Amino acid sequence: MLKDLNNLPLRTKAIAFAIALGTVPVLLIGITNYISSVQQSRQALADAKESLAATLGDKVGRFMFERYGDVQVLANLSILANPEKTSGITPQQKQATLDRYMNIYGVYDSIAVADVSGRTILQTTGEAISGLGEQDYFKAALQTKQAVISPPNKSPSNGKYYVFIASPIVNVNTNRVTGVVRTRIPVENLDAIARIDASTLSESSKAAAAAEYHLIGPDGKFFVATEKEQIGRDAKSDFSKFAQIQAGNKVASVVDIDRIDKAKQLISYAPVSQIQGMPNLNWSVILAEDTATLYAGEWRLLLNLLLGTGITALLASALAVVFANRTTKLIQAIATSIASSSTEIAATVEQQERTVSQQASSVSQTTTTMEELGASSRQSAEQAEASTNGASQALNLAEKGTQSVHQTLTGMTTLKEQVNAIAQQIIRLSEQTGQIGSVSSLVGNLANQTNMLALNAAVEAARAGENGKGFGVVAGEIRKLADQSKKSSEKINTLVADIQAAINTTVMVTDEGTKKVDRSMELTQGTAQIFTGVADSVNNVFLNSQQISLSAKQQAIAVQQVVAAMNSINLGAKESASGITQVKTSTQQLKDAAQILKTVV
């Protein structure tokens, strides 16, 4: 298929393109407008139906509120609330009064009054009413002492649905509940309320007036409906999405399928209005209409779209033929001119290709030479950097040696000071030892004198006889002590002499150590001066090596930059050569295309 299209003449393709260009945008715009119009139309219809459903819910709510007021009016009638005052009125007259009220309201088919036991004491004309006391609404009215509205109930006797409204009767004199009045509304009377009168609607809402209406009770079942067979059915069984919209308890619309008709319908839901002062009915309203009927106007819109697109396509086709003829002639002239120019360009490009190839060869040779120079420069830079590292290590070692010498010198100075301090201490010890020797000699002399005194005392005691015997004993003891003191003094003198000899030896050794420390300090100072000179020399070597390394690196970087530039030039030359080759090829292709274009046109 695509192959056949490629073989078509350019004139035919131009006509087809012009038709598509004129038709497709119109078609797209029409489809967009159609979709937008359909969406707006459906939203407007949904809004109109929701408005009708809300109006119907409000209408039903107001109607029931009025009925709620009716029963309270009946409960306050004097014939019921003030029996003492109306005791003269006969039962027939009371019945006539109830009949008159029922006819005035026109919505009830029965009104009945029962006492608190549930016994019927008064009713409107008709079949006798009994069993009121058994009804839930009757019990609720007595229990709450307020009016109540029953849910729609199906009568077991006739199968019809009724709504009951009951209100307690309070005696105005005793303020006691004396009975209950109840009214009965056939749900058929609500049918007229629920029916939609199109004449009262606006133009935008009349399209939704044909919808089927439904009233749903608290049990979820229909008790009023357009199709009578739906009454009593569960709304959830007929509309699958009823539970979904009911849960929202607000006005809403949804497309659903009626399970009875099997037709797709637009369902609009609204709760019956809750009016203040009236119990919550818990009723709801549903309006349903087939989407086929509701959206019938969309087909007319689609038909108009197709008709407009067809007319546009015809006009575009006529204009396309005219413009295609003019365009093909112009293209033929241009194709001839392109073919001539392509031949001239091809010759020029071929000459430029040869020149660029020669330039690329020269640049490639220069790049190779610069790469060799770059390698040499990098090697020199590496050697210079290695020399710098060695000089740096030597400088660090020299600095560490200098620091060690200074530390040794400091230690020797400290040692000298400590040796001098020891010498001073030894001298003071020698002096103190001499003093001890003097004291010990003095003690020896005292011991000798004491011994002589003790000897004399013993002689004198012997002369004294018995009286001097005790003194002689004391003198003997003193002599013994004197002998011991003399011996101790001699030992101390011996020890002091030994200490003196040791101290003298120590003094000599200390003097010799001090001299050796002085000689070591002189040698260490000389070594420190030598290390300082070595460090200065190594530092100069390090600075020179660093400068050489930096210069070598800069030279290597410069060579690399030159190599990069040459590579860029070389790449540019190769790209230029490749580009010229491509231009040459493109020129040939352009020439061939011009020939093909002339053939196609």
Summarize the structure.
The protein has about 600 residues and is of the alpha+beta class. It has two domains: about 30-295, PAS domain (Beta-Lactamase, 2-Layer Sandwich), CATH 3.30.450.20; about 340-435 and about 500-595, Orthogonal Bundle (Helix Hairpins), CATH 1.10.287. The protein has twelve helices and eleven strands.
How would you describe this protein?
The chain has 601 residues and is of the alpha+beta class. It has 2 domains: 266 residues, Beta-Lactamase (2-Layer Sandwich), CATH 3.30.450.20; 193 residues, Helix Hairpins (Orthogonal Bundle). It is built from 12 helices and 11 strands. The strands form 2 sheets. Strands 1, 2, 3, 4, 5 and 6 form a 6-stranded antiparallel β-sheet that branches. Strands 8-7-11-10-9 form a 5-stranded antiparallel β-sheet. Helix 2 packs across helix 11 and helix 11 packs antiparallel against helix 12. It is flat. The model has no long low-confidence stretch (mean pLDDT 81).
CATH class of the largest domain: Alpha Beta
Q: What radius of gyration results from the CA coordinates?
A: 69 Å
State the domain count. 2
What proportion of the residues is helical, as a percent range? over 70%
Number of strands: 11
Amino-to-carboxy terminus distance: 21 Å
Biggest beta sheet attributes: 6 strands, antiparallel
Number of helices in the DSSP assignment: 12
Kindly report the average pLDDT value. 81
CATH architecture of the largest domain: 2-Layer Sandwich
Low-confidence stretches: none
- In one word, what is the shape? flat
CATH topology of the largest domain: Beta-Lactamase
